[in-house]
Specification:
single chain, alpha/beta, 6 helices
Length: about 190
Amino acid sequence: MSEPPGFVFVTGNRHKAAEARRIVGPDLAIESIELTEIQSLDPLEVLRAKAEAAWRQLGRALVVEETSLELDALGGFPGPLVRWMLEAAGPAGIARCAAGLGDSRAVARCLVLFVDGRREIVGEGVERGRLVLPPRGGAGFGWDVVFSPAGDERTYAELGAPEKDARGHRGRAWRDLLDKLRAAAQ
């Protein structure tokens, strides 16, 4: 983008903030505020609750994000609860769980929600792949070291920022949102 967007990205995760700035532009405003995250298997429900809480605190146009890792072997679980599974078991533990159940396929999903008090616009990015062991790569964060996107033997952590941004779930979600915002402005 050539000019800063007319919203603030609300996240306390410095890695998500860095990825968003690489995709949206370096002037993207970031606001780190404490948001209580509801527990739900529906990422849109979690996202809307975050947006409502952030709106109450900031009262201005904003974007919030929710990321899910959906294991095929568990019918899509942990989904948006992956943060807690990651804290408890780590990335290798999540991959071992899938491998132990005989199905390492997974879906990385990111939803970003823009709200401005009048409307909400959702961007979505999805990447199919599989979980691999042992963890590989030195870039990325979270479960990037065990997620290998479909058609590639490398993990997200081995791709490097430009390639991950171009093809990953978060980059796709942000580009989808930005396209929808541009279309709404016309």
